[in-house]
User: Fold this.
Amino acid sequence: MKRIPITGPSITAKEIAYVTDAAANAWYENANIYHERFEAAFAEYVGRRHAMTLPSCTSAIHLSLAALGVGPGDEVIVPDVTWIASAAPIGYVGATPVFADIDAKTWCLTAKTMARCITERTKAVIAVDLYGNMAEMDGICDLADRHGIAVIEDAAEAVGSEYHGKKAGSFGHTGVFSFHGTKTMTTGEGGMAVTDDEALYRRMLMLRDHGRKPGDTGFFNAEVAFKYKMSGLQAALGLAQIERIEELVAEKRRVFSLYQARLGDAPHLTLNYEAPGTRNTYWMVTVIWDRALGTTKEDVMALMAKENIDTRPFFHPLSAIPAYADAADRTRARAENKVSYALSPYGLNLPSGASLTEEEIDHVCAGLLGILGAKGAAGKRPALSASGRSPPTNTNLMPLG
Ligand SMILES: *Cc1c(COP(=O)(O)O)cnc(C)c1O
Assistant:
């Protein structure tokens, strides 16, 4: 069997036609036609007044923080378990990240874990919809409101997910999305920020165009800022993808249900959680196993690779990685974020691409159950670990690389 990739996009004749047309025609007075159509379609889909095409989700978070006035001396709360892109822009504006614990079921920030991190310096919170799972946005937004804290919803992994009838990215001051090639919809590289706040939108327009007032034709820059724009070719690709979004989301849900039918009953395994009142779009089908099995994610990844199956580690806590070795909040986070440290060593993302066949999913599930034992700790012993290392007993002391 050929190698099963972790994920990849769904590209049809529609995408190719739109990009071809953009390459031929989206210039001169038509330079922005695809941006305008993509932004309008995206804003309508998410249910927001404004959408702004950007080169990445990382830049969308940076721009949001900058436009909200977050800077040196301010603290920004971010879940400890997420891709580093959620947190890195906090440093770009000179603010300090504070790493909140995640929930054991949703794997996301909660109002409770956020509350423990609030100080008088807290200026913003970045709530992440991890792997398509929804964070508890009502509680987070209420708490933030009461404390005058700005909210950014990082929906990079959750386009199409829903919470109490509202789409991912429709909460907070801004919602931000990624269209990286691995994400549910793609523009190759790309991102989007959405907001209902007119003043914030106008501030972001100015900051993303070298401090030019929207409509400026005099090239008379008001301040030194950033250059964050998407190309017309990418916008054409994005328009085709958002016009196919129901199909892309249905495909993710199909893949998840095939995994659930094969792994859902295994008592030692937990898959992505779809909380009551939410719809999950399962960007990455993710499995967490009982830590009593003693096998770490690095071991399982290596054994899956031998079966020609690509997997990814469940994100490491940010407070555990070398990039944040000097973070002010690191010691507190490592001591207090019990759920992050209990789950992270024992989780993997499984192949979740749109083109996966049922046979491939059979192969992945058979491989995983072979490695972890079909019944877990109560059944037969799991296969030997790839490295022969014993699992960490104190995960606060996990290797720092
Ligand atoms: C992918 C991702 C980002 C960053 O997206 P880019 O478009 O690569 O900048 C941010 N946050 C999360 C949670 C992501 O998964």
Q: What stands out?
A: The pocket of pyridoxal-5'-phosphate is lined by residues 56-58, 82-83, 85-86, 128, 154, 156-157, 178, 180, 191 (CB under 6 Å). The chain has two domains: 13-245, 246-396. The longest helix spans residues 245-263.
